[in-house]
Write a structure and sequence with these properties.
By secondary structure, the chain is an alpha+beta fold. The protein folds into two domains: 220 residues, P-loop containing nucleotide triphosphate hydrolases (Rossmann fold, 3-Layer(aba) Sandwich); 93 residues, Beta Barrel (OB fold (Dihydrolipoamide Acetyltransferase, E2P)), CATH 2.40.50.140. The protein is 26% helix and 33% strand. The protein has eight helices and 19 strands. The protein has a six-stranded mixed β-sheet with strand order 6-7-8-3-9-10, with helices on both faces. A five-stranded antiparallel β-sheet has the order 13-17-14-15-16, with no helix packed on it. It has a four-stranded antiparallel β-sheet with strand order 2-1-4-5, covered by helices on one side. Helix 2 packs across helix 3. The structure holds adenosine-5'-triphosphate. The site of adenosine-5'-triphosphate (ATP) has 12 residues, from strand 2 and helix 1.
């Protein structure tokens, strides 16, 4: 039996449907990423799980109990927000202990937990500082520590890394993942960044316009997209989805799987983008479809150069042109 379940949840804001029939079973200790573009309903779903927003219909179950109408405090869930949400006038240790005091946990227990958690997030030497004296990365660690110290088994995170620079984000991704695994936390993590979701989550729920587009492991979403939306969302850069000359179906091939050769489809290079480790070519086909191709960094191409491209049949996906759902996958996991 699953530990945490979302059962046919709908959310209406007047006549606008923010979430449509969302169901999800989460296992204990699982890391689930809620992924999707801005406005797809990720934060609304997280707020419903936290109890900050009621669903219009549907149920939330935790450990076999219906908590749909239970208040946030009684759900035993911790939260970490993008904005850190720290009290500016309280020190690091006071911020971390604040929730424990509110729950009337004994001082000796509070101090023991504080010591452990400060070590866990490497903030022991910073415990008397105010948030304004800390970098963004350290503030986010305080917010993580505050969630962990509560010892709630479920943690919800809403874009916790989006205020940090790229290098720090990459470091914190690893830290959060390790913390989650070592503590056995069940974690629901909202992000619009597919790299974050792919590199951290056990499973990803990809949302668009309030509906689940695909639910699966990062490998499943990458190798076996169920529709063109997933194909176009996952991967950096994402999959090319295009129409071949004189065909109607949509073809999906990843930029890294297209080869340049002496024969194949003719195309014209319209842009080159140097990335250090590789170069991305934007190529226009005869029917004006555009494809991206990832080539080795040492390969040089001129604008307007004519090239020929092909790919292995086993790297190709086919989608229905009408409803954009998958017809065939050649790709194995
Ligand atoms: P972002 O990454 O931009 O925060 P999101 O995927 O988290 O996007 P939500 O914040 O869940 O999206 O919003 C989903 C949709 O519901 C949006 O179109 C938003 O405008 C709408 N919405 C959210 N809250 C309300 C509200 N209180 N009243 C009316 N509409 C709302």
């Amino acid at each position: 039996m699953s530990y945490f379940s979302i059962d046919k949840v709908n959310k209406q804001f007047e006549d606008f449907t923010a979430l449509n029939n969302i169901s999800l079973e989460v296992q204990q200790g699982e890391f689930i990423a809620l992924l999707g573009p801005s406005g797809c309903g990720k934060s609304t779903l997280l707020r419903i799980l936290a109890g900050l927003e009621p669903p219009t219909s549907g149920r939330i179950m935790i450990d076999g109990k219906d908590v749909t109408k239970v208040s946030p405090a009684d759900r035993h869930i911790s939260m970490v927000f993008q904005s850190y949400a720290l009290f500016p006038h309280l020190s690091v240790k006071e911020n971390i202990q604040f929730g424990l005091k509110a729950r009337s946990i004994k001082k000796s227990e509070r101090d023991a937990r504080l010591k452990d958690v400060l070590e866990l997030v490497s903030l022991t030497s910073q415990q008397d500082k105010l948030p304004s004296q800390l970098s963004g990365g350290r503030c986010q660690r305080v917010a993580l520590a505050r969630a962990v110290v509560s010892k709630h088994p479920i943690c919800l995170m809403d874009e916790p890394l989006s205020n940090l620079d790229a290098k720090l984000r990459a470091e914190m991704r690893t830290e959060i993942r390790e913390l989650q695994k070592s503590l056995g936390l069940t974690l629901i993590y909202v992000t619009h960044d597919q790299v974050e979701a792919m590199s951290m989550a056990d499973r990803i729920v990809l949302l668009n316009k309030g509906e689940i587009q695909q639910l699966g492991t990062p490998q499943q979403l990458y190798s076996q997209p169920q529709n063109a939306f997933t194909a176009r969302f996952i991967g950096s850069p994402a999959m090319n989805v295009f129409v071949l000359p004189e065909q109607t179906e949509l073809i999906g091939v990843r930029p890294e799987n297209i080869r340049i050769s002496d024969e194949g489809l003719m195309g014209r290079v319209i842009h080159t983008d140097y990335h250090g480790d590789s170069t991305l070519l934007k190529v226009s086909l005869l029917n004006d479809s555009k494809v991206l191709i990832k080539v080795d960094r040492w390969q040089q191409f001129d604008k307007n150069q004519v090239i020929y491209i092909n790919w292995k049949q086993s790297d190709q996906h086919k989608f229905c042109a009408k409803n954009e759902t998958i017809i065939t996958h050649s790709v194995t996991l």
